[in-house]
Amino acid sequence: MIEVSLENNPLIQLNLLLWMSLNGKESWLNPYFNKMGYEILVIEPELPLPPKHVNILNQNNIEFIDNPKPEVILLNKENKNYFIIECKNQCFNLDNKDTRSTKQVVSFLIYNADLISESFGIEAENYIGLLNYNFMKNDFLTEFSQKVIEMQENLNELFNENINLPSTSYFFEKDETLYLKFIDPKNTIPEISDNNQIKVMSLKENNILAPLYLIPIDSSGNTDKYGEIVFYKRIKSNFGVFLGKLNNLIKNENIILDIEKEILKNIINVWDIWNNAETKKYIRNQTRLYLNKIISKLEKKIDTFSYQSINNGYNLDIQDKSTVEELRKEFLKVNIKRENKAVKNNQLNFNFSEDDI
């Protein structure tokens, strides 16, 4: 069995937060942010900082990141609120001003509703920031929150304006249940329970992990092996669905398999609101490499079938319906490693608890 842990796993951390932002069945995973009236606006967007703030930071020799990419921006249209979530695998090192993590927190503090409204053309009046950690010592996180407050106060004075203070959260497991715990010293997030923790989902043994992966892989090199298996299994399954539609397409002279339209938008439901061009390019390339293995095997087996790679996918040369039947039959025989058993058998196995935090 492949063990999946939140510790050192920012990908599954992001997927949990995305599911909490979707309108889903509460019996499986609590759509907490969605129930608060939020929906996903965009995933991993670039947010250039305003020139005014950039100039002031430069004049005061304060290091920052000019185009930070928060994990997700949520929008509450009714209340005109933005909710930006930044996921961290480890805590910001605020003792060293030259580290990337310290530069990130400076940029994160400068976010505001006007900046986001200008970037996306959607009016909003308020802004909430959340720094989420997948595994963190509670005492260290409390100390860190105090340091962030100090940074916020310094930036307030520097810019002569109200700088937003992000809240902090982390996941933990207790009694076979996954919770999200908040540290919110200035009560910036409404509707949190009295003990500042939200039940996310049950971790009973019969819970299969595969559906959790809205985004199964990323380009950071931190993709866990289970997410990778889920990704390749979905590609193969959706290619099979495409083959099932070929009888209706055979009348066309050119049969095009569009990788993004026929595969990726089906296996990654948030594809259209995912703004990270670098990661999406990586995923397109990985999908093509995997499909090359499948399609080349089919070409070797079937004399009346050939293909040509094109920019957006493949141009398939299929002579007639008998070729379609051969494709389906041979496709069922295709065996690519690291697929079925691991995905079918793997269950939720988060290896941490609040006692460890």
TrEMBL record:
Identification of the protein by name: Uncharacterized protein
Organism: Halanaerobium kushneri
Lineage start: Bacteria, Bacillati, Bacillota, Clostridia, Halanaerobiales
